[in-house]
Amino acid sequence: MMTLSTHANHDPAELAKFSQLAHRWWDPESEFKPLHDLNPHRLAWIERWISLSDKQVLDVGCGGGILSESMARLGARVHGIDLAEKPLGVARLHALEHDIALTYEAIAVETLAQREVQHYDVVTCMEMLEHVPDPASVIRACAQLIKPGGFVFFSTLNRNLKSYLFAILGAEYLLRLLPRGTHEHGRFIKPSELSRWARHVGLEVREIEGVHYYPVTRQYHLKPGPDVNYLMCCQASL
Questions:
Q1: Residue 5 lies in a domain
Q2: Which of 15, 55, 71, 179 would be 121's cystine partner, CB 3.0–4.6 Å?
Q3: Residue 42 is labelled as binding a ligand
């Protein structure tokens, strides 16, 4: 059995940053517009690999619940976790108002992994790895939580010059798609690094898909080329 990190794998400044904006999480024209626009694409990508209907699903770093709710609407039994209490409060209220059955919990993924070994058919960890001090620890926990043969889906940002120009200068300063200071380029993760960490804990990398934003149409598309944002599909060994 893998030994999981028990240290506090979170950055208080990052939690405070998203807590401050929690009340705007479900406003599709707010700072979270990119998540609302991207969500249908990543949901369809997940469904290409596994039908979510009647699956036990864990959403790590769920925030206000945009992805969690959309998976629950497809029939998944979703458990969303996060360490930021205010976004979780927003997520619980929104689910209650829309009569969507799912659960949320304020807990570290490493702690949950000690309680629910091989419990989930699907684990998602989207737009979260670049916000924690030790992303490899999160990946180890996800591997511990997934059932044999189950799927783990990650999304994060590549670390290179193009990602600095597009994700920080472009998205935060020129196009103002995100608040300034949302990301730190030094925390971005190269696909080779994420692949290595995944393989090290028994996850097979099945696909890497690039996420591309077109300013003229203001739309996202998924296609090969993980130059900036990218998704990674991994599968646990049987």
A1: no
A2: 55
A3: yes
Sequential DSSP letters for the chain: -PPPP-S----HHHHHHHHHTGGGTT-TTSTTHHHHHHHHHHHHHHHHH---TT-EEEEET-TTSHHHHHHHHTT-EEEEEES-HHHHHHHHHHHHHTT---EEEE--HHHHHHHSTT-EEEEEEES-GGGSS-HHHHHHHHHHHEEEEEEEEEEEE--SHHHIIIIIIIIIIIS-SS-TTS--GGG---HHHHHHHHHHTTEEEEEEEEEEEETTTTEEEEES--SSEEEEEEEE--
Residue 157 burial class via C-beta count within 10 angstroms: exposed 0-12, middle 13-18, buried 19 and up: buried
What pTM was computed for the model?
Answer: 0.90
pLDDT tens per residue across span 197-222: 999 999 999 999 999 988 878 899 99
Q: Cα(128)–Cα(185) distance, rounded to whole angstroms?
A: 14
126 is in an annotated binding site: yes
Is 90 exceeded by the pLDDT of residue 23? Answer: no
User: What's the rounded Cα separation, in Å, for the pair 59 and 101?
Assistant: 14
Q: Are residues 139 and 60 in the same domain?
A: yes
Query: Looking at the structure, do residues 80 and 173 belong to the same domain, yes or no?
Result: no
Task: State yes or no: 227 annotated in a binding site.
Answer: no
Structural domain of 50: 12-16+29-156+189-236
